[in-house]
Amino acid sequence: MDAHRRPFMDRTLPLLTEGYAWLPDRMRDSADSVVRTRLLGRPALAVRGPDAVRFFYDEAHVHRHGAIPAPVLDTLFGQGAVHTLDGDAHRARKELFLPLLDPDRVTGLTEHVTAAWDEAVHDWSERPRVVLFDEAGVVLTRGVCRWAGLPREAVDAEQLARDLIAMVDGFATPGPRHLRARRARSRQETRMARLIGDVRSKAVAAPEGSVLERISRHRDTPTGPLDARTAAVELLNVLRPTAAVSWFVAFSAHALHRWPAHRERLRAGDGAYATAFAHEVRRFYPFAPFLGGRTVTELTWHGESVPPGGILLLDVYGQNHDEELWGDPYAFRPERFLHRPPDPDELIPQGGGDPATGHRCPGERITVGLLEALAVRLARLEYTVPEQDLRIPLRRIPTRPRSGFAVTGVRAP
Questions:
Q1: Which residues are annotated as a binding site for heme?
Q2: What GO molecular function annotations does the UniProt record carry, in alphabetical order (predicted)?
């Protein structure tokens, strides 16, 4: 019997119970960083390493169309999102997002978010207890909405923040979190589609060149603009990943609490160290466990095969904690990124490949820029960390400190 046709047990249920350890545990038994299994009833091949990243992002090997499970589309990305497209269609849609990576745009978003943070700190100082994960979500949402040109009267920032966080929090799990994510997406797609319609009818003015204006007029083809629902999906695909930086803010607070020596260099305003700290937070702490695509043809990697229509998985969490790449992967050391920038095929917390032409998250530069700025502000903030459950459960996807990282006695710098 062909190697790729030998029967394997489906491993979907173990994934749900083992979380981030599911794939690395199986990789540990492989000499070549490759695992053959079954997932969602389909044959799957999991790979790891810089060469595997390039293999995974080769469009001759993998397509995203039809690869993302419906529960993930209905919560995290949205039906018809850029993440579901391939080839020319993907590149055409991605043109909508690439200008947002311009350094001036990233700087502008960072300024809006840090202004929202500074406003919030004064409110936190008057409250007995603040949960940083929750409050960071509101700050990030307020900042990105102002930057994107959304009218303040059209957005309830706190409700939108709760919904954006729910979309991320419930995409990879059955049960109540998933149901909340579905309801949140449906609610916000309806609201954003209405806003897109109001912009197109000129009932609402969108600032020229703003994200809202760009998405409202974007055309994938000569026949006309995106339908209002798809435009709403893509608007949320700007807002949602920005709000998701709240996970990294909570992780940054966790790192500064566990290893307070990093606080002084951040407080001093060392820009290179802030960048290195941001990269190390993204490498060290778990976010995406793996990425997947649908195989276009029969693929073979290190002697293991998967047939057309199977699944190719890229082990993100395992690669970011691979001893061969990082030497001491479970030590939190920002210094590892001070002497050389991260290799984009080694550090892959938001995927690999070229963000301009491939499927690497185009918002990665934004995430790093926001985290640099907010880590410095967090290091300069005075507060007390009361007793709480700061464990980060690896069975929960996406995970975070169980308490959300609560602080008391906040004092503005």
A1: 361
A2: heme binding; iron ion binding; monooxygenase activity; oxidoreductase activity, acting on paired donors, with incorporation or reduction of molecular oxygen
Query: Could you tell me which residues are annotated as the binding site?
Result: 361
Q: How many folded domains does the chain comprise?
A: 1
Q: pTM (2 decimals)? A: 0.92
* Residue 108 burial by Cβ neighbours in a 10 Å radius (0-12, 13-18, 19+): middle
pLDDT for 240-257, tens place per residue?
999 999 999 999 999 999
292 contacts: CB under 8 Å, gap ≥ 6: 39, 44, 67, 68, 311, 312, 313, 314
Query: CA–CA separation, 16 vs 178, rounded Å?
Result: 13
Helices (H), 6-81: 12-18, 22-27, 50-56, 70-72
Taking the C-alpha atoms of residue 338 and residue 255, their distance in angstroms, rounded to an integer, is 18
Q: How many CB atoms lie within 10 A of CB 408?
A: 13
CATH number of the domain to which 351 belongs: 1.10.630.10
Distance CA 144, CA 369 (A): 13
Cα(178)–Cα(166) distance, rounded to whole angstroms? 8
Tokens of 45: 């091949």
- Does residue 292 come out as left (phi exceeding 0), alpha (psi in the -120 to 50 range) or beta? beta
Structural domain including 332 reads 3-411
